[in-house]
């Protein structure tokens, strides 16, 4: 029996990287998964590989109408979702001195406004559920430490951190069966981190074994925690922030 048997999940930015790994892990634990991405072809590839328990949908997370459509299409195909993972994102290298307003707004439209729209749509849909529900927001270590080379990214992730707690407390105050938590990964071995803008180098991260301080994590290091937070086993956990950082927060240098 899987830890997510009977659950229905939506994962954004799931055409590659963390979203792909999370979708695959959810499906392996028994969930039906809606794989969404602005790159429809990538989303379709992931859903096809998972099989009958997955469906791909195109989604620009900054588009409020598309959020409503994604939830409606999910309900028609599988039922009302129990799980939402807000994962979609991008990285634009720019400091406080050279970040343009357009770059700042673009980054925040996807990674902060997009998470707001996802949480709002999910709460409205999930609040009548009889089963426990879970919203998982991908923040970053940048929200806990700051990250000067990527100002807009750090600002957006900081907003996600505090918004997560507000969403969680609202759901508790209203007695909704919804928990909301944030994850704060350090560098994870994904295409976004490997891109030239971020500059990660070296061999791919192995799935098992110790990782040296400063090394990249594996996507499954995050996906496995997502499975736990999505499952009813974590029913007493809400408004939490969980570093997935190999100790980086306490030994940053």
Automatic annotation (TrEMBL):
<keyword id="KW-0560">Oxidoreductase</keyword>
<dbReference type="Pfam" id="PF13561">
    <property type="entry name" value="adh_short_C2"/>
</dbReference>
<protein>
    <submittedName>
        <fullName>SDR family oxidoreductase</fullName>
    </submittedName>
</protein>
<dbReference type="InterPro" id="IPR036291">
    <property type="entry name" value="NAD(P)-bd_dom_sf"/>
</dbReference>
<dbReference type="InterPro" id="IPR020904">
    <property type="entry name" value="Sc_DH/Rdtase_CS"/>
</dbReference>
<comment type="similarity">
    <text>Belongs to the short-chain dehydrogenases/reductases (SDR) family.</text>
</comment>
<dbReference type="InterPro" id="IPR002347">
    <property type="entry name" value="SDR_fam"/>
</dbReference>
């Amino acid at each position: 029996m899987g830890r997510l048997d009977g659950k229905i999940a939506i994962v954004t930015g799931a055409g590659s990287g963390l979203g792909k790994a999370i979708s695959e892990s959810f499906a392996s634990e028994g969930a039906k998964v809606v794989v969404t991405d602005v790159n429809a072809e990538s989303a379709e590839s992931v859903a096809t590989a998972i099989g009958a328990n997955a469906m791909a949908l195109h989604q620009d997370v900054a588009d409020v109408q598309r959020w409503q459509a994604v939830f409606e299409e999910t309900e028609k195909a599988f039922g009302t979702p129990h799980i939402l993972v807000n994962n979609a994102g991008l990285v634009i290298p720019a400091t406080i001195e050279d970040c343009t307003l357009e770059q700042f707004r673009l980054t925040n439209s996807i990674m902060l406004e997009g998470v707001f729209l996802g949480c709002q749509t999910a709460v409205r849909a999930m609040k009548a559920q009889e089963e426990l529900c879970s919203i998982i927001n991908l923040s970053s270590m940048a929200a806990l430490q700051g990250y000067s080379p990527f100002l807009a990214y750090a600002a957006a992730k900081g907003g996600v951190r505090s918004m997560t707690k507000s969403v969680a407390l609202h759901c508790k105050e209203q007695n909704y069966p919804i928990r909301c938590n944030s994850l704060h990964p350090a560098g994870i071995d994904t295409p976004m981190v490997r891109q030239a803008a971020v500059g990660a180098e070296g061999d791919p991260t192995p799935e098992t074994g110790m990782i040296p301080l400063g090394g990249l994590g594996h996507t499954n290091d995050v996906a496995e925690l997502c499975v736990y937070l999505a499952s009813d086993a974590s029913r007493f956990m809400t408004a939490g922030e969980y570093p997935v950082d190999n100790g980086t927060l306490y030994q940053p240098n």
